[in-house]
Amino acid sequence: MSPYEPDVREDLESGVEEDLQEPQMYKVLLHNDDYTTMEFVVEILQKVFHKSPSEATQIMLLIHKSGVGVCGIYTAEIAETKVEMVHHLARKSGYPLQCSMEET
Questions:
Q1: What is the structure's pLDDT at 20?
Q2: What is the mean pLDDT of residues 3-27?
Q3: Segments forming the whole domain that contains residue 94
Q4: Domain count of the chain?
């Protein structure tokens, strides 16, 4: 049996904590176009991004006025999934709605 060495354990634990980093976060953006209805954008914001009706309406109006709006901030994998879900639902409904992600 090896002798108990508390200093060695503390060194290992502190080294592990220093190596941990927060994951890179990404903004998911919706882009305005001349064909996608405002109602559909609100629906996407509620279904995919879990926004309340009033919050979804506010974001939709921002997208309509400024051309782009942030729907949420997520890790890379979740952001990619959200972008794919938006594109799938938009194409299924016949809309050219564009969604993208960018580093924060």
A1: 83
A2: 71
A3: 36-104
A4: 1
Instruction: Tell me whether residue 11 is in a domain.
Output: no
Q: Across the chain, which distance is largest between two alpha carbons, in Å?
A: 74
Q: Tens digits of per-residue pLDDT, 48-87?
A: 999 999 999 999 999 999 999 999 999 999 999 999 999 9
The CATH number of the domain holding residue 46 is 3.30.1390.10
What's the pTM value of the predicted model, to 2 decimals?
0.81
- DSSP notation for the chain: -PPP-HHHHHHHHHHHHHH--PPPEEEEEEE--SSS-HHHHHHHHHHTT---HHHHHHHHHHHHHHSEEEEEEEEHHHHHHHHHHHHHHHHHTT---EEEEEE-
The token pair that represents 5 in the structure block: 């060495």
